[in-house]
Amino acid sequence: MKGILLRGYNLLISIVTVLLVLTTTFLIIIVFSNVIGRYFFNVSLAWAEEASRFLFIWAAFLGGVLAHEHYEHMNLDIFVRISHGKWRIAIIMASQIVTLVVLLIVFRGGLIATMDNLSWLSPALEIPYGYVYSVIPFASLLMAVQTLIRMARTINPPESEAE
C-alpha cells in the first residue's frame, strides 16, 4: 500500500514538473512574441499581458511545490543545527506543524478565492478568474502532503537515513 501511494505521489510530482515546464515555455513564447511585435511591427497582442500574468501565477505556485519537494525554500535552521536527539526532532516537528497550519490556511483562502471567482471573466481572454486561482489550493494541498510526508519521515526515518 505504501509503495502504491509513493508511486502515485511521484507521478503527481512528475505531472507538476511537466506543467511547470509548459507554463514557463508558453510564458516565454508569449512575452517574447509580444516584445518582438511591439518593437519591430508596432503591434501588441491584446491578450498577451493577461495570459503572461496568469501563466506567471501558475509557474510561481507550481515552482513552489517543486521547491518544497527539494527542500529549497528558505529555512531558519540554526536551532536545528545546534540541537541533538529528541530536541532536534521536537524543533523539526514544531517547524513542520507551523508550515502545515500555514499551508492549510492558504488552501482554505485559495479555495474560497477560486469558488468566489468562477463567474468573473478576465477581460481579454474571457476565462474565469477561478481557473487562475485554482492553482492556489492545488499547490498548497500538495505542499501540505509533502509536509506530512516529512513529518512521518522525521518520526520514523527510513533505514538509509537512520544509519
Automatic annotation (TrEMBL):
It holds the Pfam family DctQ. Its main location: membrane. The chain crosses the membrane at residues 12-31, 51-68, 89-111, 131-149. GO terms for cellular component: plasma membrane. GO terms for molecular function: transmembrane transporter activity. GO terms for biological process: C4-dicarboxylate transport. It is a multi-pass membrane protein. The keyword Cell inner membrane applies. Residues 27-155 form the Tripartite ATP-independent periplasmic transporters DctQ component domain. This is Tripartite ATP-independent periplasmic transporters DctQ component domain-containing protein.
